[in-house]
Write a structure and sequence with these properties.
Belongs to the SPT2 family. With about 100 residues, this protein is mainly α. The protein is about 70% helix and about 0% strand.
């Protein structure tokens, strides 16, 4: 029991008995980063209803996304073919130059 009392008396030095000034850290963070909570607050429940979509709307968006993806893939393939063709022509031209020098 005495050891507990001794430990408590040692810990008394570490306890802050000063005034309980709690700073509002979120206010400082808002000032630093320019964050405004009110800007992201939901105005009303009506806005949530606008975010709902039907299955048909989702399928339409999926079709549009698929088309865009296919077009991007085709464009990428075209660019790759052009690069390969340019590289092949460059190799042929350098081979011709090397053949002429001999």
């Amino acid at each position: 029991m005495e050891s507990d009392e001794e430990e408590d008396s040692e810990l008394d030095d570490f306890i802050d008995d000063g005034p309980d000034d709690t700073e509002d850290y979120s206010k400082h963070i808002q000032d630093i980063f320019g964050y405004n909570r009110n800007r992201y607050r939901i105005e009303s429940d009506d806005e949530d209803e606008c975010m709902e979509s039907s299955f048909a709307q989702q399928m339409k968006e999926e079709c549009i996304s698929t088309k865009i993806g296919i077009l991007e893939d085709l464009e990428q393939e075209r660019l790759i073919r052009e690069e390969e063709e340019a590289e092949r022509k460059s190799k042929m031209a350098s081979a011709k130059r090397a053949k002429i020098r001999k």
